[in-house]
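Allow me, if you will, to draw on your knowledge of protein folds for a short while. I am sending you one protein, given as its amino acid sequence and as whole-number tokens for its backbone shapes. Kindly check, if you would, that the fold set down in the tokens agrees with what the sequence suggests. The record follows directly beneath this note:
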Amino acid sequence: MKDDRATRVDARPAPALRRYVSSYVGFDLRGFPAGVHCGPPGRVLTAVISLSGPLAVATGVDDASPVTRFDSVAGGLMCRSVAIHHDGRQQGVQVSLTPLGARAVYGMPAAALAHQLVPLDELLGALGVELVDRLRTATTWAARFAALDELLLRAVGRSAGGKRVPPVRPEVAEAWNRLVAARGRVQVGAVAAELGWSRRYLTERFHSEVGLLPKTFARVLRFEHAHELATAHDPLPWADVATLSGYADQAHLVRDWGEFTGRSPTAWRRGEVLLGTG
């Protein structure tokens, strides 16, 4: 019997984690056609723990990037979508970290992970192994989210106690907050002037912490907004998506969409068999 099911469960981390971890998402997708899902770039660093078979992931879509299999995987900020190869079923938990939270949880700046996919246990060590085991052993989403809270709080405590990395410059944190609040629709020079830095100095400091240039990060944020509009249950026409997300015109959106997904908007929508799963 065919099992068609799309389950998504969202949860907020424990209050003490919310500076560093923006969300948890549990997902159980079954009965869909096999294909390649484009995991889009965005404002967060994503970690995924599979609750079924290994994840087959590549750092590019339709570009012959090698496919690697992970039981759990962590990624830095990207300038293009990752390709998630699936057989019509995916079950797991996604954890979204802020770039500035990478130091607290992983003990390193987000820049150290930019454009990369690495096994989660390489970053968390024994805690990463325990995390996968706990999530797979748990029988409810609530229990899985509770285990995430417990183990990530331990990771944060370990990083703070060991003083492995210096704190994030507050100006960089403020620049990130302002870019995110504006969905990328703000001039980097204006942000630098408000912080009392030159544009060049802000660019250098931001890149060394986050792993992307602030102008590039602003483009990612604009694309992220467009992607949210395009994946809504009642998606808007592409021209409206372009206008609402701050593109000069639809042609501008098409160029960025191709750069960030490896596909035109039309080809992306045609190939995304997991659209509409929530």
Observations:
- Strands lie at 5-11, 21-30, 35-39, 45-50, 55-58, 68-70, 72-75, 82-86, 90-97, 117-119.
- The longest helix spans residues 141-162.
